[in-house]
Design goal:
Strand order of the largest sheet: 1-2
CATH architecture of the largest domain: Up-down Bundle
Largest sheet: 2 strands, antiparallel
Distance between the termini: 72 Å
Shape: elongated
Number of domains: 3
Radius of gyration: 34 Å
Number of strands: 2
Structural class: mainly alpha
CATH class of the largest domain: Mainly Alpha
Number of helices: 13
Oligomer: single chain
Strand content: under 5%
Order of helices and strands: HHHHHHHHHEEHHHH
Length: about 290
């Protein structure tokens, strides 16, 4: 871990002083590491590319995270690139490693920039890392255009909805805020928390009690109306509608010795008979209509 500014400066100087590798030497080191797990070859290969890690990490220094941590995460990506590199493809290691270094740093930023996880899809990651730049570029060419028009153009450029751009823009516009942060004083003089102003979506007690009473009343009505069904209709309705896992038409047809289409017809007729009986007993209940 790079703990202080002085140690980071020493590390950067050492990385910049590391010799460049020629194509043949780089290829030889990569082969030795892949085939024999030669630690000396790995150290030499990665040391020569630490300046690349530092350069890429510097591009993300404006996200408010320690530069030392960004460099460390970039080094993780460099080691991942070394583990996956295929020398026979005749591609320079720096070209291949750049993607892994940048991906490792970006993943670290997304995990640590905010306590709220965001940017999980590829389009959201692109938006997160490019919104500031795109917004600045459009602002320079805009003639006092409305904010919504700028966001719509950004959304079109990235290929996502304007709502997603607006959400990310609001997240990047301010720091995380604790729900326990005081926002004022209550009538008793004590400070109120931000969470005190979040509406509760749970039903009120009287609504819950009313729903329970209504359900019990409807169940009582249904039990009373079942007398209009004959035994076969009652069995089919119970098997199909009054159990947690209703029986299939085919299974009931085999049990009763009739076709599944006939079971469906009997079921529909039973439901209609129940509806008529419930309306007769309770004509004021429009839900039965």
């Amino acid at each position: 871990m790079i703990k202080s500014a002085s140690s980071r400066q020493d590390f950067v100087r050492a990385a910049m002083a590391a010799p460049y590798l020629g194509r043949e030497e780089e290829h030889d080191l990569a082969v030795r590491w892949r085939d024999t797990q030669d630690q000396v070859a790995l150290h030499k290969l990665t040391s020569a590319h630490m300046r690349l890690v530092i350069a890429i990490a510097a591009r993300f220094r404006n996200f408010g995270l320690p530069m030392g941590d960004l460099i460390q995460e970039g080094h993780v990506g460099l080691l991942e690139a070394a583990a996956r590199f295929e020398p026979e493809r005749e591609v320079r290691f720096s070209t291949y490693a750049t993607w892994w270094i940048r991906a490792s740093i970006q993943d670290y930023i997304l995990r640590n920039w905010s306590i709220v996880r965001g940017g999980t899809s590829s389009s959201q990651k692109t938006l997160f890392f490019n919104l500031r730049r795109l917004r600045a570029r459009l602002a320079q060419s805009a003639d006092q255009r409305p904010r919504i028009a700028v966001l719509a153009e950004i959304a079109e450029a990235i290929g996502i909805s304007p709502a997603e751009v607006e959400l990310m823009d609001s997240r990047l516009s301010g720091p995380d805020m604790s729900l326990n942060a005081p926002v004022g004083e209550s009538e008793g003089g004590a400070a109120s928390d931000r969470q005190d102003f979040i509406p509760d979506g749970v039903p009120l007690p009287d609504e819950t009690v009313g729903e329970v009473i209504d359900n019990e009343r409807r169940l009582s009505w249904l039990r009373s109306a079942l007398h209009v069904l004959n035994p076969r209709e009652l069995r089919i309705l119970r098997e199909r509608r009054l159990r947690d896992e209703g029986a299939t038409l085919e299974a009931l047809g085999e049990s009763l010795g009739i076709s599944k289409e006939r079971v469906r017809q009997i079921e529909n007729r039973a439901i209609e008979k129940l509806r008529v009986e419930l309306l007769r007993e309770h004509p004021d209940q429009a839900a039965f209509g």
